[in-house]
Design brief:
Elements lengths: L2 H44 L7 H5 L8 E10 L6 E8 L13 E9 L5 E9 L9 E6 L13 H9 L5 E8 L11 E6 L3 H14 L5 E7 L8 H10 L3 E7 L4 H6 L4 E2 L4 H7 L6 E6 L1 H14 L6 E5 L8 H9 L11 E4 L4 E4 L7 H7 L17 E6 L2 E3 L11 E3 L3 E3 L3 E3 L2
Parallel strand pairs: 7-8, 7-11, 8-9, 9-10, 11-12, 13-19
Antiparallel strand pairs: 1-2, 1-6, 2-5, 3-4, 3-6, 13-14, 15-17, 15-19, 16-18
Length: about 425
């Protein structure tokens, strides 16, 4: 046998062995694929709804504009009967798109006026449950008139509580909002003040259903036990899930609260409490509540050493929260050295020309701080109710808005002036 023949024989043997090895591997993987496919087919056959499989139903596109929803039922959620949950089902019977826990719905309401007509207003309310393909839930607190003030009680919340009943139709935009929980497995701390518990309920329910091994802390602050929303539900979850840690904080507990030991902490939620309760871990913090809570907690967490990227928050109404990064920028520059200091914002209808102040936050906050009334809803670029015409100049967005403004307009709640600007407001 020549050297060439020997070499070819060796190559042929090696090739034959590799072919056998690859063939066996392919056969094993093929058997696994067939078994998996069989299981999936069975599952999809079991989940066929309206001619579509479960996979097809999962990827439902968000709708454009407003869609009619019917109130399926209502549930009072607290002892004071000030919070009511509304369960909404689509009038067209089609499946609903998933949303990110923490997002909100935008409602277009036709409210009756004293003159006998109606007035259309836009309001946004957080979704208060985990995503569901068949229904949505919002939990709305009746907003009373401020003590000692001539300001009337909340019109939209009173309308929901007093006039929206089972079977009524509501016009609703698709879920939106940049405030939502991430889908990683990082430990998470949820902080809800008052009705700020609503997006936290959505986050908690989703986490414990989809990520039961994830470490979740919920700090829930109210004045006293009568204001607790869905207390029994939260306590049941805490009992069933060892990774879920519930802390109830009462700033003004009543005698009955003390007798029943209905709370874990007497006082408002602050960084001192968080440092006492939380182990040292790289938590993500999600905060929703009144502005004073955020003004205290956000800088406090940053001073504790929590990175800005791990602090997420949403406030009720106008809020300007000073961050470490923005404060450093402001103090490192001499007054008048920034290009923003020379920008002038003109409000055409109001006849006001006002030097822009970057500390104002957004153009909506800036307008309100200077006595200029602007219609608003979500304050997060999702509902479009603060859309305003730009007569002259340019604006820039702090974050991409969910709502697509018409050409020549802007959403005041999420933009700032890029140069001198004239607004139709």
């Amino acid at each position: 046998m020549t050297s060439l023949s020997l070499f070819l024989s060796i190559c042929a043997g090696i090739f034959f062995q590799v072919a056998i090895f690859l063939g066996i591997g392919f056969w094993r993987h093929w058997q696994k694929f067939l078994a998996l496919s069989s299981d999936n087919v069975g599952a999809c056959q079991a989940e066929v709804v309206d001619g579509k499989t479960d996979v097809e139903n999962f990827y439902v596109a968000a709708w454009q504009g407003y869609r009619a929803f019917r109130v399926d039922h209502r549930v009072i959620e607290d002892a004071m009967q000030s919070v009511c949950s509304f369960y909404l089902i689509p009038e067209d019977g089609q499946k609903l798109p998933n949303f990110l826990p923490g997002q909100f719905l935008t409602f277009r309401l036709d409210l009756p006026t004293e003159a006998g007509g109606s007035e259309q207003i836009i309001r946004c309310y957080s979704l208060s449950d985990a995503p569901d393909r068949n229904r949505y839930r919002v939990s709305i607190k009746r907003a009373p008139a401020p003590s000692g003030s001539l300001v009337p009680p909340g019109r939209s919340s009173a309308y929901f509580h007093d006039q929206v009943g089972v079977g009524d139709l509501l016009q609703v935009r698709a879920p939106a909002g940049h405030f939502h929980i991430d889908r990683s497995t990082a430990p998470v701390v949820l902080i809800g003040g008052g009705i700020g518990i609503t997006p936290m309920l959505s986050m908690v329910n989703w986490c414990l259903s989809e990520q039961p091994e994830r470490e979740v802390w919920l700090f829930y602050g109210v004045r006293h036990g009568q204001e607790l929303v869905m207390q029994a539900h939260l306590e049941t979850l805490a009992t069933a899930h060892p990774n879920f840690h519930l802390r109830l904080c009462f700033s003004n507990p009543q005698p009955q609260d003390t007798a029943d030991r209905a709370f874990n902490y007497h006082g408002r939620i602050d960084v001192a409490l968080l440092r006492k309760e939380l182990p040292l871990k790289p938590y993500h913090f999600y905060i929703c509540g009144p502005t004073p809570m955020l003004v205290s907690l956000v800088p406090g967490l940053e001073n504790w050493g929590v990175p800005e990227s791990r602090i997420h928050f949403e406030a009720f109404g106008p809020a300007s929260i000073k961050r470490k990064r923005s404060s450093a920028v402001q103090t490192s520059e001499a007054p008048g050295s920034s290009a923003e200091d020379s920008i002038v914002v003109t409000f055409a209808q109001s006849g006001k020309q006002i030097p822009w102040q970057a500390s104002a936050g957004s153009l909506l906050d800036f307008a309100e701080a200077n006595g200029i009334s602007v219609s608003s809803g979500c304050r997060a670029g999702g509902c479009g109710s603060c859309q305003t015409t730009i007569r002259h100049g340019e604006v820039t967005y702090r974050q991409p808005p969910e709502f697509d403004p018409e050409p020549g307009t802007c959403l005041l709640c999420v933009c700032t002036p890029k140069a001198n600007v004239t607004l139709e407001a």
